């Protein structure tokens, strides 16, 4: 996580303060103009506009009427698996103790009529619990539940095969919902929840997740990153060890913190056709994870709150809107791609652009590895010790590597005045720290700085830039301008164009 990484860098004395000089005179680079990035024009409002559920109970459905016999808990227990429950208009509740909740059975379906609300009254912890399979929730508003931190309201126990559609999950503590394998989350409003809109975590395998056509906004009302420095426990959506996720056509905006955050051994993500804007933190963090395609998205005004805060403190680490931290392509791990590809995106007036970062001190068995686990390439973490870690294959496999990142055919536009920036914005970066810790590390010195910059197949090309962009390479002391960035030894952004505007 970015804040956690910064804290580790401060502890180990590896973040060197450096200023960012003004851009040179206006320049237009010659060469072939890149193909225009497509992006997406505007987000689709779902909150307040969810598709309504059935106004009448379907044939064979069990009717739950809060004005007559609204005991949804009891009726879920009494009926067999595969039952459809229709919740009539009105406010449904689940008892007066903290454990009042619904326990679905396999294949159960919960349909909300227009105006049907399931309200935890700030008393109940959870709405839908236990790990039934193939449960459907559609057309329902779920609000007012108070789970503890890191726990969720809907699908609390990460049951597999759930479908959550056309529902509003809002004003809850913790996460609005959790995730299991083969889960589809489509057409929902995930709004103003205390920690996450969704926390995609499962104690076990979590694969095949679809997040499509949702509005994800205003989450992390509890401001947890400020309560627990470096907790890495917030986001519009947080993903943990998810294998294969399709994230498309969502509007992710105005979250307090990161929009989408994939943290720890995620793999095979497709993030496309989303509008991600006005989040306080990064639009996307992809951290110690593998193999992704991020394409045809629009990113606007992300990371301005956090970027300005870091700049005011004089922190020169590039506060990125797209933060790829110890993540990249790994062909040995099965996925739809063996790269981490970022293309066809439109980035407008974000605090900064794309940062490729690799912490030299973060690897299996290092105290700087705050995840506590190991890479997907090493089954036994105890192998990552001297002397074996100092030679191949463990020298490569015991660390998460920012490698095989391909950034092309994007549009990067920034006007510093429009985002209130006086310094330390409008930056791209491919950097590491000087390795210092632990004393048995084979990665001490500048070996990772050299590798991420020159040897790990990280490439920018065929992009279009507008604004006073600068580029940080190897470490935070080295800031170059576009002509240097394109020249040896970096040789980046071949066939890209640069137009000076803003200041």
TrEMBL record:
Residues 132-222, 226-309 form the Right handed beta helix domain. Pfam families: Beta_helix. Residues 1-25 form the signal peptide. One of its GO terms (molecular function) is lyase activity. Keywords: Lyase, Repeat, Signal. It comes from the Bacteria. Residues 25-90 are annotated as: Disordered. InterPro entries: Beta_helix, PbH1, Pectin_lyas_fold, Pectin_lyase_fold/virulence, SCF-Subunits/Alg-Epimerases. Residues 26-44 have a biased composition (Polar residues). This is Parallel beta helix pectate lyase-like protein.
């Amino acid at each position: 996580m970015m804040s956690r990484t910064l804290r580790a860098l401060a502890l180990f004395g590896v973040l060197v303060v450096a200023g960012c000089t003004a851009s040179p005179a206006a320049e237009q680079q010659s060469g072939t103009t890149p193909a225009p990035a497509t992006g997406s024009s505007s987000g689709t409002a779902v909150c307040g506009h969810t598709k309504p559920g059935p106004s009448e109970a379907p044939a064979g459905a069990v009717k739950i009427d809060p004005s007559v016999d609204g005991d949804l808990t009891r009726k879920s227990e009494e009926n067999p698996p595969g039952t459809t429950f229709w919740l009539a208009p009105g406010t449904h509740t689940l008892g007066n103790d903290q454990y009042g909740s619904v326990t679905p059975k396999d294949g159960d379906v919960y349909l909300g009529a227009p105006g049907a609300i399931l309200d935890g009254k700030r008393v109940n912890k959870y709405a839908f619990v236990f790990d039934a399979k193939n449960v459907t929730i559609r057309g329902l508003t779920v609000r007012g539940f108070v789970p503890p931190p890191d726990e969720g309201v809907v699908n609390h126990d990460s049951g597999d095969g759930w479908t959550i559609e056309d529902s509003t999950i809002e004003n809850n503590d913790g996460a609005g919902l959790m995730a299991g394998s083969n889960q589809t989350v489509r057409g929902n409003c995930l709004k103003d929840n205390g920690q996450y809109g969704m926390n995609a975590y499962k104690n076990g395998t979590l694969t095949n997740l679809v997040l499509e056509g949702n509005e994800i906004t205003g989450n992390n009302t509890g401001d947890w990153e400020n309560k627990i420095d470096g907790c890495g426990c917030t986001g519009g959506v947080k993903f943990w060890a998810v294998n294969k996720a399709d994230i498309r056509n969502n509007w992710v905006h105005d979250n307090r913190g990161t929009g989408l955050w994939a943290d720890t051994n995620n793999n095979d993500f497709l993030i496309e056709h989303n509008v991600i804007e006005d989040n306080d933190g990064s639009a996307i963090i992809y951290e110690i994870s593998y193999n992704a395609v991020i394409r045809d998205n629009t990113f606007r005004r992300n990371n301005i709150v956090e970027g300005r805060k870091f700049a005011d403190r004089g922190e020169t680490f590039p506060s990125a809107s797209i933060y790829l931290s110890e993540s990249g392509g790994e062909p040995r791990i099965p996925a739809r791609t063996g790269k981490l590809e970022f293309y066809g995106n439109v980035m407008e007036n974000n605090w900064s652009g794309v940062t490729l970062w690799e912490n030299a001190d973060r690897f299996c068995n290092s105290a700087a590895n705050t995840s506590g686990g190991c890479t997907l390439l090493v089954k036994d973490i105890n192998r990552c010790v001297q002397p074996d870690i100092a030679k191949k294959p463990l020298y490569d496999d015991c660390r998460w590597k920012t490698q095989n990142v391909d950034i092309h055919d994007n549009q990067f536009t920034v006007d510093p005045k429009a985002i209130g920036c006086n310094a330390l914005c409008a930056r791209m970066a491919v950097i590491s720290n000087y390795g210092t810790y632990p004393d048995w590390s084979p990665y001490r010195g500048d070996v990772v700085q050299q590798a991420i910059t020159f040897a790990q197949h990280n490439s920018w090309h065929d992009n279009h830039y507008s604004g006073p962009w600068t580029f940080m390479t190897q470490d935070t002391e080295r800031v170059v301008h576009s002509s240097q960035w394109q020249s040896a030894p970096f040789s980046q952004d071949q066939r890209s164009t640069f137009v000076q505007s803003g200041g």
